[in-house]
Prior knowledge:
Elements: H1 7-10, E1 25-27, E2 30-33, E3 38-40, E4 45-52, E5 57-59, E6 64-70, E7 73-74, E8 77-79, E9 87-89, E10 92-104, E11 106-110, E12 113-117, E13 119-124, E14 127-128, E15 142-143, E16 147-149, E17 152-155, E18 161-166, E19 169-173, E20 176-180, E21 194-197, E22 202-206, E23 209-213, E24 220-223, E25 227-231, E26 234-238, E27 271-273, E28 279-283, E29 286-289, E30 293-296, E31 304-308, E32 311-314, E33 320-325, E34 329-333, E35 336-339, E36 342-347, E37 350-354, H2 358-367, H3 374-379, E38 386-389, E39 392-396, E40 400-404, E41 409-412, E42 417-420, E43 424-429, E44 435-438, E45 442-447, E46 455-457, E47 460-462, E48 467-468, E49 490-495, E50 498-500, E51 502-506, E52 526-531, E53 534-537, E54 539-546, E55 550-551, E56 562-566, E57 574-579, E58 583-586, E59 590-597, E60 602-605, E61 611-615, E62 618-619, E63 627-636
Parallel strand pairs: 2-4, 3-5, 7-17, 13-18, 16-19, 17-20, 18-21, 19-22, 20-23, 21-24, 22-25, 23-26, 24-27, 25-28, 26-29, 28-31, 29-32, 30-33, 31-34, 32-35, 33-36, 34-37, 35-38, 36-39, 37-40, 38-41, 39-42, 40-43, 41-44, 42-45, 43-49, 45-51, 49-52, 50-53, 51-54, 52-57, 53-58, 57-59, 58-60
Antiparallel strand pairs: 1-2, 4-10, 6-7, 6-10, 8-9, 11-12, 13-14, 15-16, 46-47, 48-55, 54-56, 59-63, 61-62, 61-63
Amino acid sequence: MRRRVPVALVAAAVPLACLPGTAQATTAGKVTVEAGDTWVVPRTTRLSALTIAPGGAIAAPEGHSLTMTVNGVETGGLLTRTGGTQTAVAAGTYRGDVVVTVADANPVSWQKLVFPFRQALYVDDAGVSAGKSVPAAVVGGRLGDTSAENVKITSTGEAFNGVYVKDGVYALVKPRIELTGNGRSDFVGYGAAIVGTGAKTRLVVDGATVSDRGAVRTGVVADGGANVIVKNSHVHTANGVLPSDYRSTVDLTYMQQAPWMLGIVGNVRATNLLGENTRATYVNSAISSEGWGVLSTDTGKNGRLTAIASTVTTTGGEGYGAYAIGGATERFLGSRFDVDTYAAINRGGAIYFGDSSRTAVSKLNVDLDLGLSAKELAAIPVRGTVVNSKRWGVMWHGAGSVDVSGGTVINTGETTFLDKGQQVTINVNGSQGARLNPGNGVILQVMEDDDPGPQMVDGVLLNTGVYHEPTGDPAKAADFDVTSAHAEDATATFTDITLKGDFYNAVRGGSTGGQGPGAGLTGKNMVLNFSGSKVTGVISAARATHQVDTITSAEYKQLGVVTNTPRPSVNNGAIVNLSGGSTWTVTGTSHLTNLAVSADSTVAAAAGKRVTMTVNGVQTPIVPGQSYTGAIVLTVG
């Protein structure tokens, strides 16, 4: 086992007389590095002043990293080029308690790149590593090998991390971390305030205040199978200014901002969950981001992201509350979302909105190894989740599911569920008061994916695609059955709930529509199952038309915004099953391909009106206990 050094003493223990006699001038604790010279700092050094002339540089010995702090604040670190991973201390004159820390290297390899991490505090399975930490950047508080209390970490340079825990068991109690300046990659957490990585990591963050400002200057990153638990904390991230030569891309090795094809902008996410079997849980915490997103999963698979009795907020007019990918399971219990664009984006995950009931929270406490005490469990309020989104609820640009239960209320300015041509499963149980309130009157919109996708430009993948509204009618796909449910369909089940809103399937199909991930769809049906429910609205196959027929990055907010015209199905069946005493009150012309009405269910019109049905052009009475298949048209008069 290596010898541990009390971190708080490392910088002070290094004498001033440790400077080499070349490439710099020294006087009374002051160093000047002239243009064209490089000072290779042999070991951690404390100064009263450091001047680096333009064209001069300081560097660490091979196998080490170099970090400068001034009065306890990491200062001057800059990425050497856009898209690069290396940092250097910027030219300038620095005065005060100047400490140049030489630390053991912490290289992290990912996607053929190597990120030379520098961090104020490095923890592994043996506790705090003095060799890989930058003690001069850890101010105040108490620091030990199992926990840190009331420490403060501040950075005004780029790509400097606050706390990095790898395969360690550690507790951060009431830390204050403030990082200003760009990070480099939130796919590895390079520049993040807190990173927990490795399958042996169990990191508990309690009472933290994290405030970051900068592109991809993430607040909390969980990676590599770690279990990261954040409670009673405030985490906020704000956008930075990207380099003038940065080009928008979805190449993960260079990506530093949200792809506008998602209908959002911004260059920072508050949190990210990565790797296989990683867990991140937020309890009684406030998490917010100015742009892009708040709670995110990304590269990896089978992650578990959970928020209990927490608030999730976007603050800058853009962004999502949560993002699910890679088979992630995301649970939001007794939490509040106040977001600008989406409550959640789904690309291969399972999302649950529900109550923070005693039973549900206690189960997660065991399943996720949260370690909440009986007192902590008792203090968690029992309540439903409330979603307030200025635009949409859940948007799919990949297959996935969503489950809404308990007293969850989803209030949206636009459509509740926006499915861009994907295999979708929706379950909404209103038996305990769940409600859906779409501001535009549309509960479910199924449509072709309008993501134009990136383009290769001189060998570089750039977000320069353009969406063009398709013209003409889609060709009928000979082998696609619009009257039967398929595993790849958009299926929604509503139980014991009262709904007011419309449901449209506007997929074109015929392999003629779509430009992004959903291009080449043969067809997709919308399958709606109502049990013990009351629904008032239009349910129909439709044609969806954007407000503009050409969408570039300048018009990104037009993505997903469509007007529906009910029309007969081509490759977009609309299948409705009414059971358990359900009632559908039809409010306008609806085109279906299959309608099943149980003996105790009804199809009706509003008071004073009458609903009429034709099947394949023949007027047909709607009889409870019967099913109808074909070109079904319901009209109200």
